[in-house]
């Protein structure tokens, strides 16, 4: 027991004192006659320290049960001495901060019945796995979740798993290659979990399934699955998880033999067609997730049958009985399909329903019945065609409501003015496009608010002070864009805000600076004035800042180039900034879009722009920049858009200095300057991007960018540019002083759609 004394940082095990008989200690079991310690249950007791091979633990040779799970062995390796417990039947070492290789000596524990080694920092190789599979003939339960098995060949390693096995769990093990079909035939297997081994292949059997299987989880694997055969064979199935299993374009072919099914997850598979409601045993269902597919049709309705009116559902198209109302349903997720019709009121009356996700479908009708849904915690019915007036007060009946998203429907939400009620649990409220005219006053008592979206409404007037005080420590996402907000915001109080979007309002005054946690900040399209405070440069987490289309003035602070290592988009276009472009873009910056168009910037182009190796869009048009052509930008390999129009740029363009100058450029606008000399033939020859139609690139950064960031609402920031991109590939050299002939090479730029050489001193015909 000495090892425990050493390891126990805190003595959570109260009954342990040195003098007592250790068999009386809590968690310790001894054999009656001999007094040998046979069981040691030390799970979650706060053990902390290294477990060395010389630990006295390994002298407890009679141990049959050892549970060290959920402690912190601080990266200790799993000692090969564990292989010495010859009597061990139950061994639990998961989530205890062990690292390194799982020793092959574990396979000496030939009496093991249960083995739990799940851990994120351990690895196992084919040989050790194979030995475990071959030698542990009485093993029933094997959990190796998160163990790195990237070097394991599944076909070898799992070949001889014993028929005693009832439960095998291998979540996120980096398994790849073919999973042996024999596992599916194991006669006693009740639970098989291979979740998220994204490169694991193989196929489910066509026959001879292990019929006692109750739980099968193959989500995010590449195992090919015949769903019909699977559901016909596995009559005991209670939980089936096949999320993202690549059923693209196929129908949901279930068999009616799933009488025991309680949980079904078939999300993210692009299934098409109708939901076969009648094949699901609705009566027992607790969880149904069919989200992210392409399913169509209406939800079944209560049968208007006087003899049996409130328990049976019928399919509205086929007029056929589909079964009983799923009274035990706790979670229904049908997000992102093409379901239509009304949301039947039985859905809202389900007594156990906590999670209801129906967004991104084509449901129509009103949502009056939603207020019956007293058990709901999470309700997302956004992006449908729902309509009607919603008296918001009625939601207060939903005492457990935590998340509410009713955005993007045709709903008209109304509030009673300053009505005195609270919804203390609600911390996520999204009501974009809901015809709202005032801020929801009840929010003033929601100190835990984390996410608020009231964009695209008709809210007028100042942002009330009480709103700025809501969620001071918790609010991370706040979208109030596209309203009619006026007045000045002195300061944002939210300490942990990440996304802050107030664009397209009527806000005036100076730019308020949010907390340094902000990573997306847009105030574009307002009436802001005055200079930028240098405290802007405290925003060290910023990725995107958009202050375009305001009346901001003064110099752009020099620190703008350096303040955030994460800055990807800096958009200050259409303001009244003066002076020079900051020259402080450091090496290694990740700026993708710099837009300073439509200001009063002067002087030369800063050489430090060359450090912007990730630059895709550089728009400095409509300023007073006085310089020669920046040939040196030709080495920015990702530059797609270069706009220098309407400046005071002069001189010849000259010749390229590099082998593939401007190789990705698709928009080059040098118009309205004082460039002279001949047209730059050598550059034209090398505008490779323009000669090859690169359709995949037309997607442009818009989609990718926002996917990276999972912030869908920001999409329209780029819409203008994306449109420009897909419609034109342009060269505009008009209104300069170019001389000489128009070169033939222009004709080779096949994808060139807009070309303007007008108002120069050129001769020759275009071919
Ligand atoms: C056990 O081994 C470690 C390192 O190998 C050593 O530091 C420690 O003193 C040893 N403890 C005992 C009790 O022998
Ligand atoms: C795990 O062990 C490492 C040392 O290897 C230590 O830094 C870490 O704090 C430990 N605890 C957890 C919970 O990771
Ligand atoms: C298999 O188990 C036996 C004890 O039953 C043991 O002696 C032997 O070393 C084990 N073999 C392997 C390869 O682990
Ligand atoms: C899966 O395979 C692809 C291609 O071989 C590889 O890029 C990817 O990293 C693999 N994923 C995992 C989780 O091993
Ligand atoms: C299925 O099992 C039967 C009898 O156990 C056996 O004859 C048959 O070969 C098996 N089929 C497959 C495909 O394994
Ligand atoms: C359901 O199981 C029975 C045998 O129990 C079988 O005859 C029938 O074909 C199965 N139904 C389907 C749709 O597979
Ligand atoms: C909808 O589901 C498809 C897969 O079927 C997925 O690609 C897409 O991103 C999902 N859209 C949303 C808004 O979740
Ligand atoms: C009404 O319900 C009863 C009992 O469930 C059933 O026998 C009958 O067929 C149903 N009638 C209609 C019109 O569906
Ligand atoms: C629902 O969509 C189906 C086609 O998928 C169509 O036949 C049906 O009329 C639609 N129902 C409603 C109420 O729009
Ligand atoms: C709101 O109600 C509480 C208790 O019912 C009351 O104390 C408070 O004065 C009311 N506030 C307003 C503004 O009506
Ligand atoms: C901003 O940074 C300045 C120093 O550059 C510091 O004095 C000030 O306290 C910071 N303000 C905030 C709000 O973090
Ligand atoms: C550009 O700058 C030079 C000096 O660097 C100056 O001589 C010239 O007048 C400027 N041109 C314009 C149009 O401002």
UniProtKB/TrEMBL annotation:
Membrane topology designation: Single-pass type I membrane protein
Protein name, UniProt field: Leucine-rich repeat-containing N-terminal plant-type domain-containing protein
Signal peptide boundaries: 1-15
Pfam assignment, any one: LRR_1
Gene3D superfamilies: Ribonuclease Inhibitor
GO CC, alphabetical: plasma membrane
UniProt entry tagged with the keyword Repressor: no
Alphabetical UniProt keywords: Cell membrane, Glycoprotein, Leucine-rich repeat, Membrane, Receptor, Repeat, Signal, Transmembrane, Transmembrane helix
Metal-binding listed as a keyword: no
UniProt subcellular location: Cell membrane
Family: Belongs to the RLP family.
């Amino acid at each position: 027991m000495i090892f425990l004394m050493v390891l126990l940082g805190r003595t959570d095990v109260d009954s342990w004192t040195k003098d007592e008989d250790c068999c009386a200690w809590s968690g310790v079991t001894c054999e009656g006659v001999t007094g040998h310690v046979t069981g040691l249950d030390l799970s979650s007791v706060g053990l902390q320290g290294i477990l060395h091979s010389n630990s006295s633990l390994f002298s407890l040779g009679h141990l049959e049960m050892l549970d060290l799970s959920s402690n912190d062995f601080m990266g200790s390796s799993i000692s090969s001495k564990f292989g010495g417990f010859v009597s061990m039947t139950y061994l639990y070492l998961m989530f205890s901060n062990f690292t390194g290789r799982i020793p092959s000596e574990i396979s000496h524990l030939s009496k093991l019945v249960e083995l739990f080694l799940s851990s994120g920092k351990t690895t196992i190789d084919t040989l050790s796995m194979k030995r475990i599979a071959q030698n542990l003939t009485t093993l029933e339960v094997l959990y190796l979740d998160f163990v790195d098995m990237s070097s394991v060949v599944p076909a070898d390693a799992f070949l001889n798993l014993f028929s005693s096995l009832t439960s095998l769990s291998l979540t996120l093990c980096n398994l790849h290659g073919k999973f042996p079909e024999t596992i599916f035939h194991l006669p006693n297997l009740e639970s098989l979990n291979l979740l998220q081994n994204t490169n694991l292949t193989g196929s489910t059997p066509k026959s001879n399934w292990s019929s006692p299987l109750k739980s099968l989880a193959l989500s995010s694997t590449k195992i090919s699955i015949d769903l019909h055969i699977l559901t016909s064979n596995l009559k005991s199935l209670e939980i089936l998880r096949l999320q993202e299993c690549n059923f693209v374009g196929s129908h949901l072919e279930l068999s009616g033999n799933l009488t025991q099914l309680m949980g079904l997850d078939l999300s993210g598979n692009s299934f098409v067609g109708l939901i076969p409601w009648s094949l699901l045993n609705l009566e027992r269902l607790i969880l149904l997730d069919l989200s992210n597919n392409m399913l169509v049709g209406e939800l079944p309705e209560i049968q208007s049958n006087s003899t049996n009116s409130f328990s049976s559902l019928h399919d509205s198209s086929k007029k056929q009985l589909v079964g009983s109302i799923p009274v035990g349903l706790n979670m229904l997720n049908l997000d992102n399909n093409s379901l239509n019709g009304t949301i039947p009121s039985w859905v809202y009356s389900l007594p156990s329903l906590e999670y209801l996700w129906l967004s991104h479908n084509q449901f129509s009708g009103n949502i009056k019945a939603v207020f019956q849904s007293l058990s709901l915690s999470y309700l997302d019915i956004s992006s449908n065609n729902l309509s009607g007036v919603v008296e918001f007060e009625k939601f207060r009946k939903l005492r457990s409501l935590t998340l509410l998203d009713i955005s993007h429907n045709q709903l008209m939400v109304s509030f009673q003015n300053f009505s005195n009620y609270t919804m203390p649990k609600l911390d996520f409220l999204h009501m974009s496009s809901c015809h709202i005219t005032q801020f929801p006053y009840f929010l003033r008592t929601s100190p835990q608010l984390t996410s608020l979206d009231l964009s695209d409404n008709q809210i007028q007037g100042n942002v009330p002070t009480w709103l700025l005080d809501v969620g001071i420590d918790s609010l991370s996402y706040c979208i109030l864009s596209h309203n009619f907000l006026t007045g000045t915001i002195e300061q944002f109080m939210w300490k942990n805000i990440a996304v802050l979007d107030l664009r397209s309002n009527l806000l005036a005054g100076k730019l308020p600076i949010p907390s340094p946690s902000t990573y997306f900040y847009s105030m574009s399209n307002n009436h802001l004035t005055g200079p930028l405070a240098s405290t802007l440069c405290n925003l060290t987490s910023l990725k995107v800042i958009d202050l375009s289309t305001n009346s901001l003035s003064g110099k752009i602070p020099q620190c703008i180039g350096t303040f955030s290592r994460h800055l990807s988009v800096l958009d200050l276009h259409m303001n009244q900034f003066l002076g020079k472009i900051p020259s402080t873009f450091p090496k290694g910056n990740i700026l993708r879009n710099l837009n300073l168009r439509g200001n009063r910037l002067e002087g030369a182009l800063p050489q430090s722009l060359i450090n912007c190796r990730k630059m895709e869009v550089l728009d400095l048009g409509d300023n007073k920049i006085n310089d020669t052509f920046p040939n040196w930008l030709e080495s920015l390999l990702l530059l797609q858009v270069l706009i220098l129009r309407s400046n005071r740029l002069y001189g010849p363009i000259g010749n390229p200095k590099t082998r593939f100058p401007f190789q990705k450029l698709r928009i080059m606008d040098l118009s309205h300057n004082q460039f002279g000399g001949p047209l730059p033939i050598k550059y034209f020859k090398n505008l490779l991007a323009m000669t090859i139609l690169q359709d995949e690139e037309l997607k442009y950064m818009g989609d990718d960018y926002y996917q990276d960031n999972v912030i869908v609402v920001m999409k329209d920031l780029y819409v203008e540019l994306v449109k420009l991109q897909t419609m034109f590939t342009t060269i505009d050299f008009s209104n300069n002083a170019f001389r000489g002939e128009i070169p033939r090479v222009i004709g080779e730029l096949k994808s060139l759609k807009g070309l303007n050489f007008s108002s120069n001193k050129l001769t020759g015909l275009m071919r």
